[in-house]
UniProtKB/TrEMBL annotation:
<dbReference type="InterPro" id="IPR043136">
    <property type="entry name" value="B30.2/SPRY_sf"/>
</dbReference>
<protein>
    <recommendedName>
        <fullName>RING-type E3 ubiquitin transferase</fullName>
        <ecNumber>2.3.2.27</ecNumber>
    </recommendedName>
</protein>
<keyword id="KW-0479">Metal-binding</keyword>
<dbReference type="InterPro" id="IPR057987">
    <property type="entry name" value="TPR_RNF123/RKP"/>
</dbReference>
<dbReference type="InterPro" id="IPR001870">
    <property type="entry name" value="B30.2/SPRY"/>
</dbReference>
<dbReference type="Pfam" id="PF00622">
    <property type="entry name" value="SPRY"/>
</dbReference>
<dbReference type="GO" id="GO:0016567">
    <property type="term" value="P:protein ubiquitination"/>
</dbReference>
<dbReference type="InterPro" id="IPR013083">
    <property type="entry name" value="Znf_RING/FYVE/PHD"/>
</dbReference>
<dbReference type="Pfam" id="PF13920">
    <property type="entry name" value="zf-C3HC4_3"/>
</dbReference>
<keyword id="KW-0862">Zinc</keyword>
<dbReference type="GO" id="GO:0006511">
    <property type="term" value="P:ubiquitin-dependent protein catabolic process"/>
</dbReference>
<dbReference type="GO" id="GO:0034450">
    <property type="term" value="F:ubiquitin-ubiquitin ligase activity"/>
</dbReference>
<feature type="region of interest" description="Disordered">
    <location>
        <begin position="669"/>
        <end position="719"/>
    </location>
</feature>
<dbReference type="InterPro" id="IPR003877">
    <property type="entry name" value="SPRY_dom"/>
</dbReference>
<feature type="domain" description="RING-type">
    <location>
        <begin position="1220"/>
        <end position="1254"/>
    </location>
</feature>
<dbReference type="Pfam" id="PF10408">
    <property type="entry name" value="Ufd2P_core"/>
</dbReference>
<dbReference type="InterPro" id="IPR045737">
    <property type="entry name" value="RKP_N"/>
</dbReference>
Length: 1283
């Protein structure tokens, strides 16, 4: 139809020829637009019919009377058939192919059932396949031995698939398939390899939505593969020639869960290759039917309206409108007659010429010609056979959305947009919507409409040919070029998402014609539930078979998020649009049906809840009496008055503030963000302005539910400032109103879609953005080295490395830009922020009800936390970090600090997730201030953190302590760290330890054990590195990580001695003794086991990885040890001698005094540059340490004679019967009950910190009974000890 689309002066080319007449034959260069007739009797009616049907001049004789459809049918059967009837007779040569045919009718190319190895399921007839076995293979029933042939494979998934050609001699097993034997050739885009017994690199990586063309040229003995119409080059040459019956068969092999659609020629190829024929022969009458559609197109193709009206009034040209009804009816009558003659023609035309005809009529770009398309639909839908062709049209549109490629020059109307726009217009017709809904593959096709083809590295290179980033050495024009590219792609994505929303809204509005009658939204609800049911387990490492492609789930997430955030304005009248506010921004009283949690619906049967599996928790918390309740609360009821920010308060949440950003004008500022790349305007939708906040009032998608009397009021004394009246439950209304698709249902599905599909995309985006920064650093470092190096060999090597780094940077910039376009548009950020506000309020309200809280699905919590941090780190930033939490999400802090140690949450990974959130947030000053201003944080977090320091959570708890206690140690003398410390939480931690001695004892015991373990592990790792000839980078990283953890633990211990010195100086000496042993243990490893060579090696390693070399500085671990000693000495000076232990005496009593002296002397002589500043405070601190060492030497010297005498006595006398058999140093002065075994009290006390069983018999210890003499001595000294 290309020739019909040409225009001459706004008049169609066909009409121009009609008007030019004989003059065009004589002198085409002087063609005039004149009516094609003369005044000698050639009437305009005949000439118009000749133009419509493309007939020769005067081939239609004079017509008498009115033109009707029977007359036009006669023209078609006579003149038109004579002209075009021979098109289908000239069948192309098809020598060299044979198709195994079973039954009657024309031969159809398909899979040969007996060739199938494994388990292949037909997802959608005829040839949408899925492998259910680990590896499945199959051949087609077409054998070729001569000529040039091809078939196409549309990829539904992008995993391991081997596509190509094989002979009958190729064996198929559960491990071998196409390409794994002689005379067997395949391409695998997942592994980017070609296969013929062995794999070789070939082609490009493929993605879901790619169309792979498999071509074989048996004239030249070559095999080619194409990706989306682009040749990947000759894959195989010199393949063996075979004779008839022993040729090559199309063959595929699929790994488990892989899906694809085969097209052997049943419908036109999407990317045909010149010279290659389809295996399936085209239907015989398709050319004639295509010409009929061209005639219909001419019937719609009108000239310039003013000229046509003039000629029509002068009777020089018959109006096409006058002939439309009879001509269109006759064309359709003949068209459907042809379709009935050949059962294969409907699919071939519906997915080929007829679809092109509809797209051309409607126009692929806006403004669309809806009136012309409606005229076509009116005519075609009058015929009962129309369902045959429109069934395939819908299939073709869905497939087109899956495989359409974004083309920069066609933006913004590129990719799936034309197919979605046409589908939306078609489904406005009730008969077409009913036909689609009644089809067996309604949901499969719906998924197709929501699909978007992914983009790999090569695709992004075509979409973004020019790349720029802050600091790049590229031409300055690249910045603006990339800005324009980002803007164009952003607009294209917005257009596609808009049409997807329109389509979903049509399905929501659709009322299925079934009995009993259903309400709007039932069809969409069924699709949504079945989709979620099918994708159970999609978030696992090994996803189950049948999982929907990621783009479908992401598109559906975007659709629902827009509905809930921006509202259903398209449902409202124009005068009510400004009152329509999205569900998430509505504010006021909120409600949520508890049935979404308490019912074990099939689509959520395997979903784990906070309390565990549904079957388990239902035994402890029956749900029968609560299923029909609705939870109601007032927005912000869980926040204290000081931090409360709602849609009703004067200060509005961040999602209702106007932080508009012109992304195309801020490319230079992106260097300040995490990732440095270009971005365009992310949304063509008008940004929500600040005045929208004032409109956050009533308005709902479903009918508002009337308030019911409260049935229960529950609160927690821990949150006494929260008015109980804001929370209540009400009985649900009648079953009829609950059947309406509610916004709460959409919210529930939205969170699950985020969890299984969107969160992985954000994770991938985070990787590219962080990796981009690292790659830019490496590129800049390499450029610097090139400028400094003089050696030719080194420069050559550095330039090669630079090219690799630059390619890596460009790839990261393109991917980062693509993720910003598709994920970080402004309206999505607004919606996600409001979503976080809504969900955290819901979780806090339901946390007051144990019987409901345990039923909340885990993905609610996971999606909330992930979405929060995605917004916090988003690039470009959604809002300034100073207001991110303060204006709307202070309740998030309330939730994480009160639930990271919640016993009702059975999954420890979830509690770790909350703990890690705290660990991340307190690293930033503005977020730390939010914690200090949060009442729940100040009341709950200190004691909860101390209790959470265990074998599993000690790393995030250590990081939190490290940030809260920053500025209180010896190393804080550097850079004035104390200005960033939290004096609020330091005081709260001190109070928590003082008020709960048992909690403090348990915490210190775990801290001692953990630090001892990390130092030991570090020492072992260093020895392994020193013993091996070649040190691996992984080992270096492991040592660096363990060393950093040890340093952090030591700094936490330093804070304990600073804030709570009496925990070591008073009471039992167990803590002080363990602390002394640990200090000497660390000093011994730092001064003897670890040499300078290792630290130099680690520093170089970390520099290559882009990390600061100070992380493995020996002083990072030694500085806390100095601080610990000085803290204890200063506390000792401020206390009365009788109320404290002797610190110096305890160090002096340790074995190997020479080792002790050497360790402290090393601390004095160590170069502290880089760890502390060289001011007066630093000098004073070291002076105190020097005094400590001198006192230690004096004390050790005075105890030397006593030590020697004691040693001599041990060598000359037998050990007394009453000596402790554990330490052999003290007297066995305590007895374990009930087993009566004896040991010294110190050994028993220390053992019971970690184990409650006897040393000797493993009996459970009930009590420890000390000798009376020992107790009396302690009473005299004023040192009463407790067990």
């Amino acid at each position: 139809m290309a020739e019909d689309s040409l225009r001459v002066g706004m008049i169609s080319s066909g009409l121009a020829v009609l008007l030019n007449g004989e003059d065009a034959k004589e002198n085409s260069s002087k063609a005039r637009i004149v009516p094609h007739f003369d005044y000698s009797g050639h009437r305009p009616l005949e000439r118009t019919i000749e133009f419509i049907f493309g007939l020769a001049e005067k081939s239609v004789g004079p017509l008498d009377g009115q033109v009707d459809s029977s007359l036009i049918r006669a023209v078609i059967k006579n003149q038109f058939s004579k002209l075009h009837g021979d098109l289908d007779v000239s069948v192309s040569q098809r020598e060299g192919i044979s198709v195994v045919h079973h039954g009657v009718g024309p031969p159809i190319v398909g899979l040969e059932e007996f060739s199938i190895c494994g388990d292949i399921r037909i997802v959608k007839p005829p040839l949408v396949l899925e492998s259910l076995a680990l590896f499945s293979s199959a051949r087609a029933n077409a054998c070729i031995w001569k000529g040039k042939w091809m078939y196409e494979v549309a990829l539904e998934t992008s995993g391991i698939q081997q596509l190509g050609w094989a002979t009958l001699a190729c064996p198929f097993t559960d491990q071998k398939g196409v390409g794994d034997a002689d005379d067997s050739y395949a391409f695998d885009g997942r592994r980017v390899s070609k296969w013929n017994k062995e794999a070789e690199p070939y082609g490009q990586s493929w993605v879901a939505g790619d169309v792979i063309g498999c071509c074989i040229d048996l004239n030249c003995d070559e095999i080619y593969f194409y990706r989306n119409g682009v040749s990947l080059g000759a894959a195989f040459t010199g393949i063996r020639k075979l004779g008839p019956g022993f040729g090559y068969y199309p063959a595929i092999s699929l790994s488990q869960g892989e899906r694809c659609e085969l097209n052997f020629g049943a419908y036109p190829f999407k990317y045909p290759v010149d010279g290659f024929q389809p295996l399936q022969e085209a239907p015989t009458r398709f050319s004639f039917a295509t010409e009929l559609l061209r005639c219909f197109s001419r019937l719609l193709d009108r000239p310039d309206r003013s000229l046509a009206d003039t000629l029509s009034r002068l009777r020089r040209f018959a109006s096409v409108e006058e002939l439309f009804c009879p001509v269109s009816s006759a064309i359709c009558d003949e068209f459907f007659y042809i379709l009935e003659q050949d059962p294969l023609l409907a699919e071939y035309l519906g997915r080929g010429a007829f679809l092109s005809f509809l797209l051309e009529t409607f126009r692929t770009q806006a403004p669309h010609d809806s009136s012309s398309l409606d005229k076509v639909l009116d005519v075609f839908l009058e015929f009962p056979q129309s369902h045959l062709i429109f069934e395939h049209v819908v299939n073709a549109l869905a497939c087109g959305c899956k495989t359409a490629t974004l083309i920069l020059t066609e933006c913004p109307y590129s990719g799936p947009y034309p197919y979605l726009a046409l589908a939306c217009h078609l489904f406005k017709r009730e008969e077409l919507m009913v036909q689609w809904w009644r089809s067996l593959h309604f949901e499969f096709l719906f998924e197709g409409f929501l699909s978007c083809r992914s983009s790999n590295k090569h695709d992004l290179q075509h979409l973004m040919p020019v790349v720029w980033w802050p600091g790049s050495s590229e031409d300055i024009s690249y910045e603006s070029s990339m800005g324009f590219t980002i803007s164009a792609l952003s607009e294209a994505i917005n257009k596609i998402e808009e049409k997807q929303r329109n389509l979903c809204l049509l399905v929501i509005q659709f009322i299925p014609p079934v009995s009993p009658p259903q309400l709007p939204g039932s069809a969409f609800r069924g699709f949504l539930q079945n989709l979620l049911l099918k994708n159970r387990g999609a978030d696992r490492t090994l996803a189950p078979s049948g999982v929907t492609r990621n783009s479908v789930l992401v598109s559906l997430f975007s659709v629902i998020l827009h509905f809930l955030s921006e509202g259903f304005a398209m449902l409202k009248s124009s005068e009510a649009v400004h009152h329509n506010v999205g569900f998430l921004h509505r504010g006021g009283q909120q409600k949520f049906p508890l049935s979404l949690f308490l019912k074990n619906d099939p689509h959520r049967a395997d979903i784990t809840r906070l309390g565990g599996l549904f079957s388990h928790i239902s035994k402890s918390y029956p749900t029968d009496d609560q299923e029909e309740e609705i939870m109601r609360w007032e927005e912000g009821c869980m926040d204290d008055e000081q931090n409360r920010v709602t849609h009703a308060t004067e200060q509005k949440p961040c999602c209702c503030l106007a932080y508009d950003t012109d992304l195309t004008k801020s490319l230079k500022d992106r260097g300040k963000n995490t990732a440095q790349s270009s971005r365009g305007r992310c949304s063509s939708i008008p940004e929500r302005s600040s005045h929208v906040a004032a409109e956050c009032s009533a308005g709902s998608f479903s009918e508002e539910i009337d308030d019911k009397p409260s049935t229960s009021n529950q609160s927690d004394p821990d949150f006494g400032y929260r008015p109980v009246r804001f929370m209540r439950t009400a009985l649900q209304e009648s079953r009829i109103s609950s059947a309406i698709l509610s916004e709460e249902e959409l919210l529930d599905a939205l969170l699950l879609l985020y969890h299984i599909a969107v969160a992985p995309n954000f994770k991938q985006a985070s990787y590219y953005m962080s990796h981009q920064s690292q790659s830019i650093s490496l590129l800049e470092e390499t450029d610097k080295q090139i400028r400094e190096r003089a050696s030719c060999d080194q420069i050559k090597r550095l330039k090669e490395a630079r090219n690799n780094y630059k390619e890596d940077v460009m790839d990261c910039v393109r991917h980062s830009a693509w993720f910003r376009i598709s994920l970080f548009s402004r309206w999505k950020q607004r919606g996600m922020y409001a979503l976080c506000m809504w969900v955290v309020q819901l979780l806090l309200v339901l946390s007051k009800m144990d019987s409901v809280f345990v039923y909340i699905p885990e993905f609610y919590l996971e999606s909330l936390v992930d979405c929060f941090h995605v917004l916090r780190k988003s690039d470009p930033p959604f809002v300034p970090s100073t207001t991110f939490i303060k204006q709307g999400l202070s309740s998030f802090i309330t939730f994480v600090v009160t639930h990271f140690n919640d016993s009702r949450i059975s999954n420890t990974d979830l509690k770790d997730l909350l703990l890690q959130s705290i660990s991340v947030l307190v690293q930033y000053k503005e977020y730390l201030e939010a914690f200090e201003n949060n009442e729940a944080a100040t009341r709950h977090m200190p004691a909860a953190l101390l209790a959470a320091f265990d074998n599993r959570s000690w790393i995030p708890v250590t990081n939190i302590f490290l940030r809260l206690c920053k500025g209180s140690g010896f190393s804080s003398l550097k850079n004035g760290e104390s200005s960033f410390s939290s004096t609020v939480f330091q005081a709260l931690l001190r109070d928590a330890c003082i008020n709960d001695g048992e909690l403090l004892s348990t915490f210190l015991n775990r801290l001692f054990n953990t630090l001892s373990w990390t130092i030991t592990e570090f020492s072992v790792s260093v020895r392994e590195m020193q013993e091996k000839y070649q040190v691996m980078e992984f080992q270096q990283r492991k040592c660096c990580v363990i060393f950093e953890l040890s340093s952090n633990l030591a700094r936490v211990l330093e804070f304990c001695t600073y804030a709570m010195p009496q925990a070591f100086l008073a009471g039992t000496d167990t803590n002080l003794r363990r602390l002394t042993e640990l200090i000497l243990f660390i000093l011994n490893h730092m001064t003897s086991a670890v040499d300078d060579e290792f630290f130099d090696l680690s520093v170089r390693s970390l520099r290559r990885q882009g990390q600061p070399s100070e992380k493995v500085s020996r002083g990072i671990l030694l500085a806390p040890l100095v601080g610990i000693i000085l803290n204890l000495l200063e506390a000792s000076e401020d206390s009365k001698p009788k109320q404290q232990h002797d610190v110096i005496g305890l160090f002096a009593s340790m074995d190997c005094p020479d080792t002790v002296y050497y360790g402290f002397q090393y601390l004095l002589e160590y170069n502290w540059d880089g760890c502390v500043s060289g001011d007066d405070a630093y000098v004073k601190k070291l002076g105190q340490l020097e005094n400590f060492l001198s006192h230690l030497i004096n004390r050790a010297s005075s105890q030397e004679p006593e030590r020697k005498e004691e040693s001599f006595n041990k060598d000359t006398t037998d050990i007394e019967d009453n000596t402790c058999c554990i330490c052999y140093a003290g007297e066995a002065n305590a007895m374990i009950a009930p087993c009566s075994h004896r040991s010294c009290y110190g050994c028993i006390t220390r053992h019971l910190l970690n184990c409650q069983r006897c040393f000797f018999c493993n009996a459970t210890v009930i009590d420890v009974i000390r000798d009376k003499e020992e107790e009396e001595e302690e009473d005299d000294d004023g040192h009463k000890r407790s067990t």
